[in-house]
Design goal:
The protein is an alpha/beta fold. The chain has twelve helices and 13 strands.
């Protein structure tokens, strides 16, 4: 048996770590692989596995490093990780401690923009139905841009040329660099507070993806959609598209095109208005001429059918009708008078005044008879009532209670307790006696056959 001293697990791990630390190629490694088992706990750190067809390695990204990664890693994504290899003592595994992470193929910034665009689009932030219409001729245009760039000069030139009567106000702001996105949001809020502003232009000249990065932020996109005034973007060149362009009510390929989108060309509007006015005047003339011709035709037709021509004949016919109507009325009145005289004579013969004394005597007799019968009936009913009252009082529980008995009720329902079978321990009872009532609680029950308590 060997006399060599056995290492502890910790000593073995320290030896492996020491061996790794003496290999400089493991202190600065680039590893490409597919992300799997991605985990991002509340601690802010990130854990995942990089794998290829033959092997896998566990990776750790500390919170401080994760905050510098512009995109969001996902399971199945191929990435290139930079870091150092070390041993995780608790599990006895080697791990890659990542200090930089980039997507394979697509750049990190471009991927971050693509991921944010997909998320905001799924949220409905870019829905065309939410886009607002631009006013035909705004009173005032607010231009948010840098005062040192060529974009401002291009926009002002286009606005003066197309619509010199439209007011313009410059809202200066930083358009790139640290804090530029926040500055753009504040400028957007200031523009909404200006009086008579109907359109906001958010513009800047071209540049790299890094130069345009402040226009790809989620904060600015949400501020654009929350704006109370329509926003037109003109960021970079025609091939540049930012998150702000997707969120804006109208996207123009360049700052100059944004100015052209915001205001119409006044000269063109005047020419169009003059042409419309001429067409309207011609149409009105034609309509008036058409209506006048129709009116003359109707007047001619009305003259031929005028009742003035038939008025004498109608007047003579009316006189004849009046004469015949008067004769018919007189004959009708005479006939009705004769009928009334006959009915009056017949009514006098059957007048109730002749039978009134006889009927009055009969009524007096019947009233006397009815009063006697009613008095007898009331006496009889009173006697029956006294008999029933006596019986009811003899059966009244109050009389029984007054003879020394009591009546027990369920205090909750008012039901009479007739058996111990329905009682339960702790139930509240109300007992009526001759001079009042008392409440009690059931402690135990005893039936007639069994003297044990329950």
């Amino acid at each position: 048996m060997s006399t060599r001293t056995a290492w502890s697990v910790s000593q073995l791990t320290d030896a492996v770590r020491g061996a790794l630390s003496t290999a400089p190629e493991l202190e600065d490694v680039l590893v490409e692989g597919e992300v799997s088992n991605l985990s991002m706990p509340f601690s802010g750190h990130m854990y995942f596995t990089l794998k290829d067809a033959a092997a896998s390695v566990r990776c750790v990204v500390w919170r401080s490093t994760r905050e510098r990664i512009p995109f969001h890693p996902e399971n199945g994504m191929t990435v290139v990780a930079h870091g150092r290899v070390d041993v995780y003592e608790r599990d006895g595994l080697y791990q890659l401690y990542v200090d930089a992470l980039d997507p394979a193929g697509l750049g990190a910034l471009a991927l971050a923009v693509e991921q944010l665009a997909r998320r905001l689009s799924a949220e409905g932030l870019f829905d065309p139905a939410r886009k607002r219409r631009l006013p035909l001729l705004p009173r005032r245009v607010a231009v948010i841009t840098s005062t040192t760039g060529a974009a401002m000069r291009d926009v002002l030139t286009v606005l003066r040329r197309r619509a010199p009567q439209v007011g313009v106000v410059i809202v200066p702001t930083a358009v790139q660099g640290d804090g530029a996105e926040h500055a753009l949001v504040l400028a957007l809020e200031r523009a909404q507070q200006l009086r008579d502003v109907d359109v906001i232009l958010l513009v800047r000249g071209g540049g790299s993806l890094e130069d345009l990065w402040s226009f790809n932020g989620e904060l600015l996109a949400r501020a654009i959609r929350a704006s109370s005034i329509p926003v037109v973007t003109g960021v970079g060149h025609e091939t540049d598209t930012t998150i702000a362009d997707h969120a804006a009510d109208r996207r123009a390929p360049t700052p100059s095109a944004a100015a052209e989108t915001a205001v119409p060309e006044t000269a063109t509007l005047r020419d169009d208005l003059a042409a419309r006015q001429l067409r309207l005047r011609q149409a009105l003339r034609q309509e008036i001429a058409h209506k006048r011709a129709g009116l003359e035709r109707e007047l001619s037709r009305l003259g031929r059918a005028s009742p003035a021509r038939r008025l004498p004949e109608l007047r003579q016919r009316l006189d004849g009708h009046v004469i015949r109507l008067r004769g018919a009325l007189l004959q009708g009145v005479a006939a009705q008078r004769r009928r009334l005289d006959r009915q009056s004579s017949r009514l006098l013969l059957v007048s109730p005044q002749r039978r009134l004394p006889e009927e009055r005597a009969g009524l007096t007799y019947r009233l006397a008879h009815l009063a006697g019968a009613l008095k007898a009936l009331v006496g009889s009913r009173r006697a029956e009532l006294r008999t029933a009252t006596g019986r009811l009082e003899a059966l009244s529980p109050r009389r029984v209670i007054e003879r020394g008995y009591s009546l027990t009720l369920d205090d909750a329902t008012g039901a009479v307790v007739v058996s111990v079978a329905g009682l339960r321990r702790g139930q509240v009872l109300r007992t009526l006696v001759a001079d009042g009532q008392a409440r009690s609680s059931v402690l135990a029950t005893t039936d007639e056959d069994d003297q044990g308590s329950t």
